[in-house]
Amino acid sequence: MNDFPTNAQDVVAVLDSSFAQVFPDARALKVSISRASKAMEHPLETGATITDHRIILPVTAELSVVIASEDFRAVYQQIGELFRRGELLTVQTRVESFPSMLIEKMPHEESADMIDGVALALTLKEAKFVTPQFSTLPPSKVARPKDSDTVKRGQQQPTESAKQGSILSGWFK
């Protein structure tokens, strides 16, 4: 028999691509959403440091869930399958939806204190995808030999002025 309250309101729902709730038999206890950014700092010649822009990091959600004893094997396997496939999920909280989240970590605890269930601390992370854009480049101008240092000129011998100007020229006569 399920000892967890069945009429309690869920704190969070985890939804698949068709907006069906995944692992509904796992009772969400709490969710912690983390939005962070990284400030880019650069040193100056004076020794000071400037911050000129920042990068928005992917959103992470730490979801604490408990699975009842009669369901824990099937529900744990379902969560494990979502983890292995890397399926993109939507985390729906009371205040906002977070799409394109995948299960990054799924540690769990088993102890004698919690004989009637299993506690999981899921970490979901936002996946950001980039679509490459390709375009054609204009034809390059033909490089003039004097502007290029990669022109095949054969083996070259140093000139007399280059030999005399060398620091090591006196050692190897």
Task: Walk me through the structure.
The protein is mostly beta strands. The protein has a domain at 13-42 and 49-126: Elongation Factor Tu (Ef-tu), domain 3 (Beta Barrel). It has two helices and nine strands, in the order βββββαββββα. Strands 1, 2, 5, 6, 7, 8 and 9 form a seven-stranded antiparallel β-sheet that branches. β8 (108-109) and β9 form a beta hairpin. The longest helix has 14 residues, at 72-85. The chain is elongated, with a radius of gyration of 31 Å. The protein starts with 12 loop residues before the first strand and ends in a 9-residue tail after the last helix.
Question: What topology does this entry show?
Answer:
Elements: E1 13-15, E2 26-34, E3 37-43, E4 49-56, E5 60-68, H1 72-85, E6 89-92, E7 97-105, E8 108-109, E9 117-126, H2 160-164
Antiparallel strand pairs: 1-6, 2-5, 3-4, 5-9, 6-7, 7-9, 8-9
What CATH architecture of the domain at 13-42 and 49-126 do you see?
A: Beta Barrel
Structural class: mainly beta
The first-to-last residue Cα distance is: 97 Å
CATH fold name of the domain at 13-42 and 49-126, please? Answer: Elongation Factor Tu (Ef-tu), domain 3
The number of helical segments is: 2
Choose one word for the global shape: elongated
Give the beta-strand count: 9
Q: How helical, in percent, are the residues? A: 10-25%
On the 0 to 100 scale, the average pLDDT is 83
Quickly describe the structure.
The chain has two helices and nine strands. It is mainly beta and about 170 residues long.
